[in-house]
């Protein structure tokens, strides 16, 4: 399966919640976010670009962050997250990435905004999953 790397900048609390659930379920952080996207993409596809829900996603403090986009990996790596945030990388199947990237373009949202929204939307469903080995 062809995978795509997605770099996400966000609140450390977001990453801690995802990591806690990944550890509890004996899964990777990437699996958790893939599951959230799987559960959330159909809803995202139905949202209008001018909807209140999309407007709320655009209120992210990272919204106006000028991301360093460079074809030189050494320069791109120098871009650091803003104070009070963290940067993590996740992997997802190319088909899932392409679906969520199309929605990001349509709604004018960043990957960060969509992944954090998907976690908020599907986090309770993830927390309701039983641990992988069946123990609590």
Question: Secondary-structure map with pairings?
Answer:
Elements: E1 3-10, H1 12-25, H2 29-46, H3 52-57, H4 73-78, E2 86-93, H5 94-107, H6 111-127
Antiparallel strand pairs: 1-2
Helix pairs in contact: 1-2, 2-5, 2-6
Q: Nutshell version of this structure?
A:
With 136 residues, the protein is mostly helical. It has helices spanning 12-25, 29-46, 52-57, 73-78, 94-107, 111-127; strands at 3-10, 86-93.
Please describe what this structure looks like.
With 136 residues, the protein is mainly α. It contains six helices and two strands; from the N terminus they run βααααβαα. The chain has helices at residues 12-25, 29-46, 52-57, 73-78, 94-107, 111-127, and strands spanning 3-10, 86-93. It has a two-stranded antiparallel ribbon. Helix 1 crosses helix 2 (29-46), helix 2 (29-46) crosses helix 5 (94-107) and helix 2 (29-46) packs across helix 6 (111-127).
Helix content: 55-70%
- Mean pLDDT level: 84
Rg from Cα: 15 Å
Shape: globular
**How many beta strands in the DSSP annotation?**
2
Number of helices: 6
H-E string? EHHHHEHH
Strand content: 5-15%
Largest sheet: 2 strands, antiparallel
Report the span from N to C terminus.
32 Å
Features of the shown structure:
136 residues, mainly alpha, two-stranded antiparallel sheet, 2 strands, 55% helix
């Amino acid at each position: 399966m062809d995978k795509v790397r997605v770099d996400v900048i966000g609140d450390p609390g977001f990453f801690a919640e995802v990591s806690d659930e990944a550890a509890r379920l004996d899964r990777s952080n990437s699996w958790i976010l893939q599951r959230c996207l799987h559960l959330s993409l159909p809803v995202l596809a139905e949202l209008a670009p001018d909807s209140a829900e999309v407007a709320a996603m655009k209120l992210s403090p990272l919204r106006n962050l000028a991301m360093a986009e460079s074809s030189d990996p050494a320069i791109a790596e120098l871009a650091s997250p803003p104070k009070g945030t963290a940067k993590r990388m996740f992997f997802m199947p190319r088909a899932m990435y392409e679906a969520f990237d199309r929605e990001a373009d349509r709604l004018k949202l960043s990957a960060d905004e969509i992944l954090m929204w998907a976690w908020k939307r599907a986090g309770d469903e993830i927390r309701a999953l039983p641990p992988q080995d069946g123990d609590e």
